[in-house]
Amino acid sequence: MIKLIECPRDAMQGLPDFIDTAIKAAYINQLLQVGFDTIDFGSFVSPKAIPQMRDTADVLDLLDLFESKSKLLAIIANTRGAEDALVFEQIDYLGFPLSLSETFQQRNTNKSIQEALQTVEEIQNMAEIKGKTLVTYLSMGFGNPYGDSYSPELVAGFVEKLDGIGIKIISFADTVGSADASLIQELFEVNIQAFPHIEFGAHLHSKPAELELKVKAALKAGCTRFDAALKGYGGCPMANDDLVGNIATESLIKVLEKCSQPFEINKTEFNEAMKIANVVFA
């Protein structure tokens, strides 16, 4: 079964105008009715860095989780953020962005890769004590624009280190939309075979015309976990390309149906969520 991870947090976080807390909550509440495996709903990071997410705790208080099977994921960038997130029983997953690029790690979390790896281990221990699961995103997972070293072997080395500290879910993030289908397939095939006990996910950014090829490559390699956002909103500002955004959930669904891949959503509730997305991101 394909796991669909809907990412309103990623879609919203870069918007310059603050979205009212009640509107955020109403949108996420509708997403909770669709049947997504997980909702990446918010983040516990510095409000100076990501002002759009400064109300994550308030949004959480307004969510109706009683009739939803979806799990909640919150992004954190340090142990302080993890401490804040772990207060809430409603949160199932913490997500940490670990970069393969030294330059991007410094820009994104103000840490070196070595410091970030130490933070991952600390947060992993904290999460296990609280019965939560840490999802580690390998950002710049398919290359970077900074000239920092990159290779599939480098990726495998990171996965091995994460495996050593007990990480069970790793998502390869195509942060700037640079990956081609062949590299996507190679990374997933090699790592899924080498680490069968780890769940590997795809957090792909793409131009619309390249989306189907990228998703099919990940599927062919055995990936069963996909991040996406309705209408393809969001993406990394460093891509410097308005056409490179998150994989659009509706487009991902079409590819999965074309490839006869099993997944579960309520189409009626999904259509309602699409209507609200047009208002939220207008």
From TrEMBL:
Ranges where the Pyruvate carboxyltransferase domain occurs: 1-271
Gene3D superfamilies per record: Aldolase class I
Single GO term (MF): lyase activity
A Pfam family this chain is assigned to: HMGL-like
Domain of life: Bacteria
Keywords: Lyase, Metal-binding
InterPro entries (UniProt xref): Aldolase_TIM, HMGL, PYR_CT
Family that this chain belongs to: Belongs to the HMG-CoA lyase family.
Protein name: Hydroxymethylglutaryl-CoA lyase
